[in-house]
Amino acid sequence: MKKIMTTTGGNPIADNQNSLTAGDRGPVLLQDYQLIQKLAHQNRERIPERVVHAKGSGAFGELEITEDISQYTKAKALQKGEKTKLLLRFSTVAGERGAADAERDVRGFALKFYTKEGNWDLVGNNTPVFFVRDAYKFPDFIHTQKRDPYSNLRSNTAMWDFWSLSPESLHQVTILMSDRGLPKSFRNINGYGSHTYSLINDKNERFWVKFHFKTLQGIETITNKEAESIVGKDRESNQRDLFENIEKGNFPKWSFEIQIMTEEQAQSCSFNPFDLTKVWPHGDYPMIKVGTMTLNENPKNYFAQVEQASFSPSNIVPGISYSPDKMLQARIFSYPDAQRYRVGTHYEILPVNRPIVEVNTYNLDGSMNFQVKEPTKAFYEPNSFDGPVEDSSFAEPALAVGDVADRYNHRIGNDDFSQPRALFLLMNENQKEQLFSNIKDAMDGVPRNIVDRQIALFEQVHPDYAAGVKKALGI
Ligand code: NDP
User: Percentage of the chain with pLDDT > 90?
Assistant: First the structure.
């Protein structure tokens, strides 16, 4: 037997085809509440899109730990044999929600692990570094990626103006303009936690860590020209590829690996290991295999499970924690703040965001609180009514930090050129040609003084880099 359609109040609906009118040609009546409700609800079907990473695709999967790394971490989800359900959301950064997938951009790689000790979110990208190293510059940088307020057009000039005035961006700009800046699909990218995080073992010893997810489908990229023809036919090429592959059981996989740096090594490291514009060279900090990540389930409802998915690097579990990385520190604040605004005060109770463990906070009220707890006298803390209490066994080891507060100039004494140079030198001739040609395309319409200032930075990376770009530009 078919179910009877109802109003949102649960009352049966007699007619869902014809609105209530005065006579068959007449005006509609205000009492047609169901018509008004449908239109009003439609007006509210969208939530504010993410300011960055607005266009995304997601899937559920599993992280399986195959190796023993208990010497570094006590996190239950990272113990050998453990399997943890996860959500992975891929995205582009700059485009709006309706943007085409096949665009040259960094790809977001945001993970939420539903562990037995609460949610662990690792909100990274398909690049190991970033354009800026101080969140003070993040809103400025994002303005250059979005639209010019006057023309409402994306602006190559704004991008290269900012980059050419910010040498710390050279590393990420080189990756973005390389072949890897335009992936063939989400299945063909690596994921990087990007920031330095920490692992803490059962002796309460801290290790600094970088997280890597290496695609087992292989890195595959497309050229600007190929992207043009793809976008002309299909704006959803990456969403389609991910959805259809999972739908037919061709589950994408990544090798989960880490790099470890001890606290002593960090003190003597030649660069700041908490600088988001730097990688840790593999030769010095070798990759350690940890496990495998598989995506094996499409979301049942895109809006509920992907659009409302709310990731935040503030979600850590015992055995995994933060680091002094200035960008990470800022994201620990700004991501939950974005979710409270975008989704709502109680975004963490939504099914896709809710941890699988019991949540025991003293938070109360707020808009749209749809959680009804058993009545308790313990609605503040401390209390004498058996409410949840703190447990000092979860305290992290103390961290020594510098003690003179100031606005330290992050550019003084900072080498912004060696690592982009190492990257440039490992590109083959074809990759270098793609790099030069992609930069030429991206510099279309940029005033000469800004182009020259950027070329001077490329020159400091490597003379061949500057020469290649100049030749492509016909300078
Ligand atoms: P390695 O030779 O050990 O590592 C080079 C890495 O570069 C590999 O992981 C490779 O990824 C990656 N790579 C190759 N081509 C590109 C490209 N066009 N865009 C982005 N990444 C690419 O050297 P180092 O560890 O000393 O690093 C040298 C440079 O490689 C760094 O300065 C950095 O620019 C880049 N890199 C380093 C990473 C790291 O964590 N050390 C991670 C990613 C890039 P794959 O193995 O998947 O092909």
Answer: 96
**If pLDDT is split at 50, 70 and 90, which confidence band does 371 have?**
confident
Write the pLDDT tens digit of every residue in 270-312: 999 999 999 999 999 999 999 999 999 999 999 999 999 999 9
User: What pLDDT shows up at residue 60?
Assistant: 98
Farthest-apart Cα atoms in the chain, separation: 85
Whose Cα sits closest to atom 20 in ligand 1?
175
Q: Give the E-state strand segments of 159-316 in sequence order.
A: 191-192, 197-200, 206-215, 253-262, 288-297
Contact 123, 86 (CB under 8 A): no
What are the start-end ranges of the E strands in 237-348?
253-262, 288-297, 320-321
Residues forming the active site: 53, 125
Ligand 1 nearest atom to the CA of residue 431, by list position: 18
Residues sharing a CB contact under 8 Å with residue 430, sequence separation 6 or more, in sequence order: none
Sheet strands (E) in 93-157: 107-115, 118-125
At residue 101, the pLDDT reads: 98
- Centre of ligand 1 to C-alpha 120, Å, is 26
Pocket around ligand 1 at a 6 A CB cut-off: 128, 175, 178-180, 190, 214, 219, 279-283, 419, 422-423, 426-427, 431
- For residue 178, the ligand 1 atom closest to its alpha carbon is 18
d(CA 342, CA 340): 6
Q: Which of 11-15, 196-200, 400-404, 466-470 has the lowest mean pLDDT?
A: 400-404
Task: Give distance in angstroms: CA of 423 to centre of ligand 1.
Answer: 6
CA distance 400 to 420: 31
Q: Whose CA is nearest to atom 44 of ligand 1?
A: 128
Ligand 1 centroid to Cα of residue 223, in Å, is 20
| Whole-angstrom distance, CA of residue 348 vs CA of residue 314 | 12
Which one-letter amino acid corresponds to residue 99? A
Residue 402 pLDDT grade (very low, low, confident, very high; cuts 50, 70, 90):
confident
